[in-house]
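FIELD: query
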Amino acid sequence: MTEGADRSNFISDLFESIATLNPIIIKETTIEMNDELRILVRTDIGYFEIMKDRWGFAFLLEKGKSVVPEIHKIFKSNSSFNHI
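FIELD: result
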């Protein structure tokens, strides 16, 4: 079983876990040179970017307000995601 950001349902699981923030994908960009996917997401409280890399990790990058700290609070009560 694939774990981490490599699993096929990673984005849908992520969006389901933060559904109270009403996430919407604004833009997806594939950077082939780095085998990386970047997804810009809008929520009710601001924007953030998801960066998935070739090693199976995903990073949430802040794009303005305090979206990432709010997502971190949600993840603390959700065992589906590991915070490193």
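FIELD: remark
The first strand starts at residue 24 and ends at 31.
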